Amino acid sequence: MTELTNMETTINNINPTTSNWEAKMIVDILAVAIQVKEPKDVTTTYGIKRIQEIYLIDKSFKPICLAMWGRFVNDEAQKISDMIDEKLIILATNISAKPFKEKLQAQHVK
Q: Which parts of the chain are coiled coil (predicted)?
């Protein structure tokens, strides 16, 4: 149970509106998926990239936008989108997170 508590604490610390938000950090996420936006293409300094936003809510009912990029749009984001009505519990570990337009941008770290 201690491990679960640590993950729940971590998600509270990744909200970009809090004062302790860092430019980039490694986090664990434990939250419920409540909404999935349609995928879209965005222009970055590296060219056009595919992005899909998944809205999560943590145990304190704070919403977090998780922006999925690249292959995660076709893989994980699609699976979550297909089952969004079930209010999936999302558990992600070792995620590289940084703000993207005041939202959480995440990428799995190997």
A: none
